[in-house]
Amino acid sequence: MYFDEEDPTTVEPIYSRVAAPNSARFEAILSSLLKGRALAYGSGLAALNGALVLLNPKNISIGDNYHGCHGVIEIFNRLTGLKKLGLDCPAEELQAGDVILLETPLNPDGTAFDIEHYAQKAHSRGAFLIVDSTFGPPGLQDPFEFGADIIMHSGSKYFGGHSDLLCGVLATKRKDWFEQLFAQRLHLGNNMGSLESWLG
């Protein structure tokens, strides 16, 4: 592997798909803000793709999330048979390893949801909660505080703020997940570019 087994962030910038100074700096700042280990991706949808590749759920519970997220799920449905459930489906429909993908506040109407409620629902079934916190940036919302397993952002919104940045972010407190995401991103090729990292 390209990185120290103890910490992927120690990797030398020998190839930009492995690591680059601008993206490493951007991820360090995001890790501090999000209170978890953060990885930057080429877009918010690329970040969602990375999370679903990591967790490989059989079912995903989702509400009126950003339409692109539903598009990514449709692709996974064709590839893996991933089944889409409603956000407020009975907990019994979730299995161990499944995912609740909660966007809060919703884009664009700002509807907010109780993160802790969905975390408890997921964890009661051995499932995981991903919170798309794009419209609730750091300082306004900390999904980890309420039980999220992964935080996702489309950085094109508040992180960019000036309509010239396309990026996505995943953050997790689990070291093993961070290492797997780091390694999988290398092969998926969905890194954030150096110029975009500088803009971030």
Mean pLDDT, all residues:
92
CA-based shape: globular
The end-to-end distance, rounded to whole angstroms, is 28 Å
Report strand order across the widest sheet: 1-7-6-5-4-2-3
Number of helices: 6
Evaluate the radius of gyration. 16 Å
CATH topology-level fold name: Aspartate Aminotransferase, domain 2
Low-confidence region ranges: none
Q: What is the count of β-strands?
A: 7
Strand proportion: 15-25%
- State the CATH superfamily name: Type I PLP-dependent aspartate aminotransferase-like (Major domain)
What's the main sheet like? 7 strands, mixed
List the keywords:
single chain, 200 residues, seven-stranded mixed sheet, 6 helices, globular
Describe the SSE topology.
Layout: H1 21-34, E1 37-41, H2 44-55, E2 59-62, H3 67-80, E3 83-86, E4 99-103, H4 115-124, E5 128-132, E6 150-154, E7 168-172, H5 175-188, H6 194-199
Parallel strand pairs: 2-3, 2-4, 4-5, 5-6
Antiparallel strand pairs: 1-7, 6-7
Helix pairs in contact: 2-3, 2-5
Can you walk through the features of this model?
The protein has helices spanning 21-34, 44-55, 67-80, 115-124, 175-188, 194-199, and strands at 37-41, 59-62, 83-86, 99-103, 128-132, 150-154, 168-172. With 200 residues, the protein is an alpha/beta fold. It has one domain: Aspartate Aminotransferase, domain 2, CATH 3.40.640. A seven-stranded mixed beta sheet has the order 1-7-6-5-4-2-3.
Task: Give a short summary of the structure.
With 200 residues, the chain is α/β, with parallel strands linked by helices.
